[in-house]
Amino acid sequence: MAKKSRQAGPATQTPFEEARDELFQHVMRCGVVGSEPIDQTAWFDETLQYMTSRFPELSEMQLADLRKLGERFAQPPKRRSEEDAA
Q1: How far from 32 is each of 13, 50, 71, 80, 83, CA to CA, in Å?
Q2: Domain coordinates of the chain in residue numbers?
Q3: Is the pLDDT reported for residue 3 higher than 60?
C-alpha cells in the first residue's frame, strides 16, 4: 500500500496573531524603528486606535499586549558590549 501524503493546509491564525503580524508590518513600513520616543508614542497611539476598530474582537488586555510587543519590536537592535562578547 502506498503511504498517504499529509498535506498541510493554510495555518489559521487567531485575531491576535493577525493583528500582531499586521502591526509589525506597519512598524517596518512606516519607519518607526529609530524614530524619537515621542514620535513613537504618538504613532502607537494612532495605530492602536486603528487596530481597535480593525480587530474589535480583541480585549483591552490583548490590545495592551499588542502595543507592548509593537514597542519592543520598534526598538533598535541592542549592541553587544565587549564584556558580553568575552
Answers
A1: 25, 16, 9, 22, 30
A2: 15-30+38-75
A3: no
